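Duplicate of #3305? Posting structure anyway:
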């Protein structure tokens, strides 16, 4: 996953490590700390080998020397790393990371690294890796534990899917059904995309294969009525989760908004999940922002992440829209779905290639 992005991050990481290593004084030239050299000076308290939180920019020469001589530390200056950060900026943009997200990542890395004091002997790779990891986690957010969410809500939990047609919405509903079944939840499906020809048959086939009931009306019927019946069915049969398909497109945007407003009013969904495809890159992010502003959503599912080496949409979308990325689709099979876990993704992105 995200091979190209991983390579860019790896290259920036190694260059940052090398630069920081080179700005550190040679151990053999390291003078004795002031506390040892001058017996009457104040004892210098032992500090953690990690980066000091205290930041001072710009870093003056005198400050560098004082810090170095007294504390056997050296300070990483913004100048030391600026060329590499410029290169990383280009790399992120080329990987389809949204501009605002790229800027956020760089500003977090700069804030973390520049002006910070590094104790001589501290491992450079952990300093750099931590700075990159914190910056990426900062834009990816905390994520959502969907199983905990379901357990904490009154049953049936109602999750509706919407988004652009052709991006894999129906397959995604089927995959999430399998994911929830694997986690011990029962599911009923509502064929609420009554607008697109063939959508009802498509979800019906998935339901049959997965062994779950699909509530359906005729093509062109009122989606709110279909979803209302689905919720009633779930209540009557003590089913944990309703997964409702809804149309991603209507005759016009106002029509779509009115439909979703009606569904919201009547069904009161717990989550509206917007589905788009990672391969659309920055376009997926722009579409999601527009959809969020005009129609509204609570969470995002990105499909076809397996086909997207760039990874920009997956990195950017949650931060750009301000909603969590809930699931990623990683293939065409029912099991090719993962709950999006920002920590695991960052670990993967910063793993040695
Ligand atoms: N490689 C890959 N293919 C996917 C993924 N999700 C869906 N697909 C494929 O994308 C194609 C379209 O998916 P469908 O679920 O049929 O969705 P759709 O026809 O676009 O229609 P909507 O349901 O309206 O979005 C199918 O061939 C799916 O197998 C994914 O995560 N990875």
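Output from current build:
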């Amino acid at each position: 996953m995200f091979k190209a992005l991983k390579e860019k991050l790896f290259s920036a990481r190694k260059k940052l490590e090398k630069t920081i290593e080179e700005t550190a004084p040679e151990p053999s030239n390291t003078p004795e700390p002031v506390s040892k050299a001058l017996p009457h000076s104040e004892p210098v308290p032992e500090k953690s080998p990690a980066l000091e939180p205290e930041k001072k920019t710009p870093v003056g020469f005198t400050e560098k020397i004082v810090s170095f001589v007294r504390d056997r530390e050296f300070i990483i200056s913004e100048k030391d790393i600026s060329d590499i950060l410029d290169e990383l900026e280009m790399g992120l943009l080329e990987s389809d990371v949204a501009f605002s997200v790229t800027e956020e990542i760089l500003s977090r890395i700069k804030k973390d690294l520049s002006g910070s004091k590094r104790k001589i002997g501290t491992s450079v790779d952990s300093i750099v890796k931590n700075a990159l990891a914190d910056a990426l986690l900062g834009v990816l957010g905390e994520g959502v534990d969907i199983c905990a969410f379901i357990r904490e809500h009154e049953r049936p939990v109602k999750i509706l899917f919407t988004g652009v047609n052709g991006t894999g919405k129906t397959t995604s509903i089927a995959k999430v059904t399998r994911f929830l079944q694997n986690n011990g939840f029962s599911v009923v499906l509502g064929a609420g995309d009554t607008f697109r020809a063939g959508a009802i048959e498509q979800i019906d086939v998935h339901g049959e294969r997965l062994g779950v009931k699909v509530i359906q009306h005729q093509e062109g019927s009122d989606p709110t009525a279909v979803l209302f019946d689905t919720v009633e069915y779930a209540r009557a049969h003590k089913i944990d989760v309703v997964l409702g398909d809804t149309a991603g497109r209507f005759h016009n945007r106002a029509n779509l908004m009115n439909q979703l407003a009606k569904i919201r009013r009547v069904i009161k969904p717990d989550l509206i999940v917007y589905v788009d495809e990672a391969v659309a890159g920055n376009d997926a992010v722009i579409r999601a922002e527009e959809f969020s502003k005009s129609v509204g959503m609570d969470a995002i599912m990105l499909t076809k992440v397996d086909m997207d080496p760039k990874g920009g949409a997956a990195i950017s979308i949650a931060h750009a829209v301000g909603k969590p990325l809930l699931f990623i689709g990683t293939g065409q099979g029912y099991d090719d779905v993962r709950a999006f876990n920002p920590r695991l993704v960052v670990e993967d992105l910063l793993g040695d290639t």
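Confirmed duplicate; merging threads. Residues 165-171, 196, 199, 248, 303-304, 306-307, 329-332, 336 surround guanosine-5'-triphosphate (CB under 6 Å). The chain has a mean pLDDT of 83.
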